């Protein structure tokens, strides 16, 4: 009996040696080391376990890259509005010091505060956009909650939300619905997509422009379009404008971050949709987002 137990113990100890070696490798692997574990010296039976560990390390590495890119983007984009906030607040404080010493507040005090408010609004917008991009990044692991969404209702509601902004700039913002269309996706993301397209059109078409948000079905595919009569985008730049922070020479004077179309592209990607840029009749830009046909979406 003792001999049999000894043989069993030796067999178990020998069988566990590969796992002990693997355990030692995992324990020695630094938290921030992205390199996969090697299988040298390990039996073939253990390789599937090592492969699973390496897949997990790979996913972690992608998430770390995504997180680093987000923080780098945030730091880069927030420098300018934060510098404006600091400068304008310091000027406003100096004016307040002058009030205490010399009586009535100078009119430029209100100027500083308005600039300060615009800078804060810009910073908030940038943070919202960066958070959206971080959430939608292909390496983030974010999963869209798919459901039937009435695209025509979402587009109409967002258009109404942006109407006061358009009116303040003398822009004619309209909505056209050729059909009642449902798409498979997540309603809040689709609303964000429409909002970014309208925001871009308002910013870059210019005061007094005409902008139309249109929902239609073309070749069996649900389609959302935002059409404006602004300066448009040159054909040579239509790929580049989807890159983060890209600003063409023609739009350098317009306040913006260059993130709007990047977000549109990412939201379209997670909905299996495609974004196309074209010329509007009579001049201007047409942004078309084409969603899968209902049968394709269901598949």
- For the termini, the CA-CA separation is 62 Å
Query: Order of strands across the widest beta sheet?
Result: 2-4-5-7-6
At the first level of CATH, the class of the largest domain is Alpha Beta
Helix content: 55-70%
- CATH-wise, what's the superfamily of the largest domain? Histidine kinase-like ATPase, C-terminal domain
Rounded average pLDDT: 76
Count structural domains.
2
Percentage of β-strand residues: 5-15%
Order of helices and strands: HHHEHEEHEEHEEH
Task: Let me know the largest β-sheet.
Answer: 5 strands, mixed
Q: What do these coordinates show?
A:
The chain is α+β, with helices and mostly antiparallel strands and 299 residues long. It has two domains: 1-142, no CATH class; 147-298, Histidine kinase-like ATPase, C-terminal domain (Heat Shock Protein 90), CATH 3.30.565. Helix content is 55%, strand content 14%. The protein contains seven helices and seven strands, in the order H-H-H-E-H-E-E-H-E-E-H-E-E-H. The strands form two sheets. It has a five-stranded mixed sheet. A two-stranded antiparallel ribbon has the order 1-3. A hairpin with a 5-residue loop joins strand 6 and strand 7. The longest helix is centred in the N-terminal third of the chain and has 56 residues, at 47-102. The radius of gyration is 28 Å and the shape is flat. The relative contact order is 0.09. The model has no long low-confidence stretch (mean pLDDT 76).
């Amino acid at each position: 009996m003792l001999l049999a137990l000894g043989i069993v113990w030796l067999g178990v100890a020998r069988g566990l040696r590969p796992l002990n070696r693997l355990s030692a490798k995992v324990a020695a692997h630094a938290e921030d080391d992205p390199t996969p574990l090697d299988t040298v010296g390990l039996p073939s039976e253990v390789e599937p376990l090592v492969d699973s560990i390496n897949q997990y390390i790979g996913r972690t590495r992608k998430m770390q890259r995504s997180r680093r890119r987000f923080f780098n983007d945030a730091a880069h984009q927030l420098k300018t509005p934060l510098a404006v906030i600091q400068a304008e607040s310091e000027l406003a404080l100096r004016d307040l010091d002058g009030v205490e010493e010399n009586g009535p507040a100078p009119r430029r005090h209100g100027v500083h505060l308005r600039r300060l408010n615009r800078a804060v609004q810009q910073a908030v917008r940038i943070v919202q956009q960066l958070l959206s991009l971080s959430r939608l990044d292909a390496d983030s692991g974010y999963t869209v909650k798919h459901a039937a969404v009435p695209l025509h209702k979402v587009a109409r509601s967002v258009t109404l939300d942006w109407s006061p902004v358009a009116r303040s700039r003398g822009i004619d913002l309209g909505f056209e619905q050729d059909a009642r269309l449902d798409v498979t996706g997540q309603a809040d993301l689709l609303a964000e997509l429409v909002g970014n397209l309208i925001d871009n059109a308002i910013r870059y078409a210019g005061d007094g422009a005409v902008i139309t948000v249109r929902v239609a079905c073309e070749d069996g595919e649900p389609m959302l379009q935002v059409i404006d009569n602004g300066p448009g985008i040159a054909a040579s730049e239509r790929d580049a404008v989807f890159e983060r922070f890209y600003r063409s020479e023609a739009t350098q004077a317009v306040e913006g971050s260059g993130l709007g179309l990047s977000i549109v592209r990412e939201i379209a990607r997670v909905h299996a949709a495609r974004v196309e840029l074209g010329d509007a009749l009579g001049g201007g830009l047409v942004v078309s987002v084409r969603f899968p046909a209902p049968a394709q979406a269901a598949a």
